[in-house]
Design brief:
This protein has 1 helix and 6 strands, in the order ββββββα. With about 100 residues, it is mostly beta strands.
Length: about 100
């Protein structure tokens, strides 16, 4: 897992999907629906704010994957006050591996 974000209250997250202002992340920290969470991109320090729509404990790891040291949660939500440049930066993070799209 490649951690893209560091949450301001602790924990890290990997961006999995972005569609306009909607995002899906895998996170070491959970957050209640309706909560507003803040963090920063590890690569640039760009501030990211998210209003959480859904948070679920990710299914147990696949047999071929190593067991995670921490619980992993899947967060879905909406970016708050994200500029076009920030959304483009997030989209580039997902597209880092040509021909592959996490999912």
């Amino acid at each position: 897992m490649t951690w893209h974000l560091t949450w301001s209250r602790g924990g890290e997250a990997e961006l999995v999907e972005i569609d306009g202002d909607r995002v899906r992340l895998r996170s070491t920290a959970s957050s209640a629906p309706g909560a507003r969470v803040e963090g920063a991109l590890r690569s640039t320090g760009t501030a990211i704010r998210l209003k959480v729509a859904r948070c679920r404990l990710r299914a147990p790891h696949e047999p071929t994957e190593p067991a995670p040291a921490e619980r992993i949660f899947e967060l879905e939500g909406r970016l708050i006050d994200a500029t076009r440049e920030v959304r483009a930066e997030l989209a580039r993070l997902i597209g880092d591996a040509p021909g592959e799209r996490p999912g």
